[in-house]
Amino acid sequence: QAPEIAASLSQDGVRVGRASHRLRNPANVAPDWVAPVLAAYVEDATERAPATLTLPGGREGYVEPIVAKPLCLTCHGERIAPELATRIRSLYPDDRATGFREGDLRGVFWVSYPLRPGG
Length: 119
Known about the structure:
The protein is an alpha+beta fold. The protein has four helices and four strands, in the order αβαββααβ. It has helices spanning about 1-10, 35-45, 75, 80-90, and strands at about 15-20, 50-55, 60-65, 105-115.
């Protein structure tokens, strides 16, 4: 449901999404402006501060890390129920989004928006 939620929130020049360094869904690849922030979070596990960036075209971007919580590990952890793992593999044959532990960086939420309404 996450893609539908992001699409419903992406309106009036606002764009919302999520990305990861270990994707499940290849449609969630990081936009160019998000990729360096995501890479910095991956490189330094102690850096978890949200980031705000000035983007071209009168826009601004915000990136916030997603930290794996116990519930996330149901689908993204080291031990996934066999029937669930089978279902994930059938939907996402190139899945790289498993093997996480609590507290690991799971990815990022991002949003870009015009600096001026209607911009």
